[in-house]
Amino acid sequence: MAQVILDHVWKIYEGKVEAVKDATFTVEDKEFVVLLGPSGCGKTTTLRMIAGLEEITKGEIKIDGRVVNDVEPKDRDIAFVFQNYALYPHMTVYENMAFGLKLRKVPKDEIERRVREAARILEIEHLLDRKPRQLSGGQRQRVAVGRAIVRHPKVFL
């Protein structure tokens, strides 16, 4: 994991709607932080800016001391679990969890080890051959978490 710093970060839409206003905080390496607030207060927008999925209007975001404002999402080494799980419906649980590793050309035996270990930790080993449509919402969430953690990202959102 890595340290994440937001330094006076703003997100203003169409020059007037302030979705995130002067966000300044540090998340230390291995620290667990929860963003709480009412609907529409900027929690998801803040996470999307950290991930690089949303441009920031002002301020600076650093990951491990490196300014990432202009770094592509794929180059930030961040895993993001979306609210809707974003699982591939035509793939099994195993294939969903292994997909990102295959794209990164991780050796097959390492993919097998990581997926099986994450499935064990998340108690979804018995679901590895199922498709997402055969899972409950909670099971789908655990698969999405598993897909993220098998990558061993610097930051997990």
UniProtKB/TrEMBL annotation:
Pfam families: ABC_tran
UniProt KW keywords: ATP-binding, Nucleotide-binding
Keyword set includes Nucleotide-binding: yes
Domain ABC transporter: 4-157
Gene Ontology molecular function: any one: ATP hydrolysis activity
One Gene Ontology cellular component annotation held by this UniProt entry: ATP-binding cassette (ABC) transporter complex, substrate-binding subunit-containing
Domain of life of the organism encoding this protein: Bacteria
Protein name per UniProt: ATP-binding cassette domain-containing protein
Protein's organism: Fervidobacterium thailandense
Source lineage: Bacteria, Thermotogati, Thermotogota, Thermotogae, Thermotogales
